């Protein structure tokens, strides 16, 4: 196997990765749809299994890519007189990486962790409201509507983003503007949610809060 063949293989593997990412996005949306439409818990669990399969495939692909890249770099660095069997070398590295697999690896998969976080929020919002409403409907509505208000604009959020570090949500434009303004002053941004101790909100820590957006949209339709 030649360097050109490896480059071609790497390119194909990276294409596969984009398909896995798209699949994970779709599975996340389907799972949230299922919770929102109060589908059977088994259906939601099936989507969790699908996401786990995607995350496993993603880890395997990452190991393949890393094994091939390390092999190429090693050979280029050592410059042996006779070119070794690159495929065998890469396979050895790949198997070594795979032998160290553990469930904790999935914690570094952003799409998988986003799925888990949003699903938990969605279940909490929808199922928590069920039990509260049986006790006092007014309290339930007031409590959920309070979660709809951006701590910066004090208005109902249209595009909420969630802070992965402290778990609070804000209107996307408002928090990004605050980050940008403080950046120009060379200052950090404290989480604007009252009582939160997080003092360094970064744009890279923000993810779309799909669960909250769905809840706000459904409330607006009523």
Automatic annotation (TrEMBL):
It is found in: Nucleus. Residues 135-221 form the SP-RING-type domain. Keywords: Ligase, Metal-binding, Nucleus, Transferase, Ubl conjugation pathway, Zinc, Zinc-finger. Pathway: Protein modification; protein sumoylation. InterPro entries: Nse2(Mms21), Ubox_domain, Znf_MIZ, Znf_RING/FYVE/PHD. GO terms for molecular function: ligase activity; SUMO ligase activity; ubiquitin-protein transferase activity; zinc ion binding. One of its GO terms (cellular component) is nucleus. Its main location: nucleus. Pfam families: zf-Nse (PF11789). GO terms for biological process: double-strand break repair via homologous recombination; protein sumoylation; protein ubiquitination. Belongs to the NSE2 family. PANTHER family: E3 SUMO-PROTEIN LIGASE NSE2. This is E3 SUMO-protein ligase NSE2. It comes from Sterrhoptilus dennistouni. The lineage of its organism: Eukaryota, Metazoa, Chordata, Craniata, Vertebrata. The gene is Nsmce2.
